[in-house]
Amino acid sequence: MARGGGGAGSATEGWGEYLKYSFGSDYVVYNAAIGGRSARSFTREGRFEEVADVVKPDDWVVIEFGHNDGGSLRTDNGRTDCPGEGDETCQTTYDGVRETVLTYPAYYKNAAKLFLDKGAKVILNSPTPNNICEGGTCVDDVSRFDYYAWRAAAELADPNVYHVPHKQYAVQVMQNLGASTVNANYPKDHTHTGPYMADVMAGSFVLGLKCGTTALGEAVKNSTESLTTTAYGSCIPQNSTVPI
Q1: ∠125-130-131 over CA atoms, to 5°?
Q2: Which of 129, 140, 199, 232 could lock 18 by a disulfide, CB 3.0 to 4.6 Å apart?
Q3: Beta bridge mates, 62
Q4: Cβ(22)–Cβ(16) below 8 Å
């Protein structure tokens, strides 16, 4: 999602840089993603607050984390979240400072509340997967964060909070493109996309918007048919029926 993807000189790019092409001139897309961050580290560094400082009423804020949120706190890298799907907390010391670590859904919900208080609307995405075709066959990626993102949105139960199952749409288009195309466009590793796949990931999110219930989806320039008749595939039934 972040600009520059896996770092300078890596020939990678984040999908957030391509989202602007799906909206007209009356929408300005600001990509505040920072590479290598988790929901926890983004919170600890005060970056959600930085975004909130410039958010205005009726703005849309898209939140997506997951690639850096796993791991173990026994060898704390400053990014790992506390295991669990609720209000569990973990104690750790990172960089010489004691820290109470929250769960992934808790960080999502806290961030959403921050933006809701500013009058914004919030979309809590599930994270795109790593390269599911790396082994030569495109196999569906199983991620607990896919469920956690949905759960956070559902538990907030706010009419201005939405969920896009971005992971499921990303898996669908990767399987439709096939291993050869997908693998050729992960130039650094199985996490960071090249420009082509970054654009594909942006398109898979846009399809999720079009198939969902948000007013932002209605603002997308692409028609639903123009997306579903390509490799992006069809609307996912859950996306079109769950009212969040």
Answers
A1: 130
A2: 199
A3: 123
A4: no
What confidence tens digit (pLDDT) does each residue in 93-114 have?
A: 999 999 999 999 999 999 999 9
CA distance 36 to 67: 8
Question: Which residues are CB-contacts of 74 (< 8 A; sequence separation ≥ 6)?
Answer: none
Residues 174-209: pLDDT tens digits?
A: 999 999 999 999 999 999 999 999 999 999 999 999
Crossing angle for the helix pair 144-156 and 104-116, nearest 10 degrees? 40
Q: How far is CA 235 from CA 91, 123, 147, 166, in A?
A: 41, 18, 18, 12
CB-based contacts of 230: which residues, under 8 Å, 6+ apart?
none
Q: What is the pTM of this model?
A: 0.94
Query: pLDDT at position 8, please?
Result: 66
- In angstroms, the CA 80 to CA 229 distance is 39
Neighbours of 194 (CB within 10 A): 19
pLDDT tens column, 20-35: 999 999 999 999 999 9
- Please say whether the beta carbons of 141 and 132 come within 8 A: yes
